[in-house]
């Protein structure tokens, strides 16, 4: 399966498969046929480095898109200067109390510091990720404290731009499926998985449009 050419890519790179994926989804799915045209030329864009993407995903775990955005902005204000890139060393330099003061829960504070420590000490194989299969990357990432399946899936979608990820651990995806396909009725992960089979091999793209349907304005995790 073709993969986006991420290594060394400049900011604002869009997956090369996106237009093909949209055509496929519009043909296969009645909701996507209506949803995709609503967002015109909007596309998923690569705008961050691996550490930033993972840190943002950790911070955004199990909270709404709006809440995650607000928390991330406070985190950036604490750990960077305007226009600069967030660095693992800068996160480690912050006292635990300072991270807690911006609203990070105690556990998330531990997790984001542990993530920074893994990057700072070279314990993650960033250069090999582009050649690895999705599940192999997931296995490596979930070995890091605080990174579960949800965070690994966000990384596959937003940084490696893998086309066929269905993040069933994401509450916003489940909510979006409920609202767009089941008139707001509760949806199980099994039902979401079955629905997502029709989106293959572009489940990441369908997921992105489901997220957008919930809030067309706010940036998604790792998109700013």
What order do the helices and strands come in, and which of them pair?
Elements: H1 18-28, H2 30-35, H3 50-59, H4 65-79, H5 88-92, H6 96-101, H7 106-120, H8 134-141, H9 149-158, H10 171-181, H11 189-196, H12 203-214
Helix pairs in contact: 3-7, 3-9, 8-9, 10-12
Counting DSSP E segments of at least 2 residues, the number of strands comes to 0
Structural class: mainly alpha
Order of helices and strands: HHHHHHHHHHHH
Largest sheet: none
Assigned CATH architecture of the largest domain: Orthogonal Bundle
Mean pLDDT, to the nearest integer, reads: 88
Radius of gyration: 17 Å
Shape: globular
CATH topology of the largest domain: Endonuclease III, domain 1
So how many helices? 12
Enzyme class: hydrolase
Pfam family, one: HhH-GPD
Protein name: DNA-3-methyladenine glycosylase II
Catalytic activity: Hydrolysis of alkylated DNA, releasing 3-methyladenine, 3-methylguanine, 7-methylguanine and 7-methyladenine
Write up this protein.
- Helix 3 runs antiparallel to helix 7 (106-120).
- The radius of gyration is 17 Å and the shape is globular.
- The protein has helices spanning 18-28, 30-35, 50-59, 65-79, 88-92, 96-101, 106-120, 134-141, 149-158, 171-181, 189-196, 203-214.
- Mean pLDDT is 88; it is low at 1-10.
- It is 52% helix and 0% strand.
- The protein has two domains: 18-45 and 165-214, Endonuclease Iii, domain 2, CATH 1.10.1670; 50-158, Hypothetical protein, domain 2 (Endonuclease III, domain 1, Orthogonal Bundle), CATH 1.10.340.
- With 224 residues, the chain is mainly alpha-helical.
């Amino acid at each position: 399966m073709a993969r986006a050419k991420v290594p060394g890519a400049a900011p604002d790179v869009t997956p090369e498969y996106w237009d093909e994926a949209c055509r496929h989804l519009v043909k296969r799915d009645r909701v996507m046929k209506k949803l995709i045209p609503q967002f015109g030329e909007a596309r998923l864009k690569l705008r961050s480095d691996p550490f930033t993407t993972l840190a943002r995903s950790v911070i955004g775990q199990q909270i709404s898109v709006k809440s995650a955005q607000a928390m991330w902005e406070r985190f950036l204000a604490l750990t960077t200067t305007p226009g600069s890139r967030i660095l693992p060393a800068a996160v480690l330099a912050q006292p635990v109390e300072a991270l807690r003061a911006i609203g990070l829960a105690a556990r998330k504070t531990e997790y984001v510091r542990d993530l920074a420590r893994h990057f700072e000490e070279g314990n993650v194989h960033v250069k090999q990720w582009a050649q690895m299969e999705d599940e192999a990357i997931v296995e490596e990432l979930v070995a890091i404290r605080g990174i579960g399946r949800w965070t690994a899936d966000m990384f596959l979608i937003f940084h490696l731009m893998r086309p066929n990820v269905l993040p069933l651990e994401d509450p916003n995806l489940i909510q979006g499926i409920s609202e767009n396909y089941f008139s707001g009725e509760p949806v199980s992960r099994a039902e979401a998985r079955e629905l997502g089979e029709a989106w293959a091999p572009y489940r990441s793209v369908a997921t992105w449009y489901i997220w957008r349907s919930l809030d067309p304005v706010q940036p998604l995790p790792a998109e700013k």
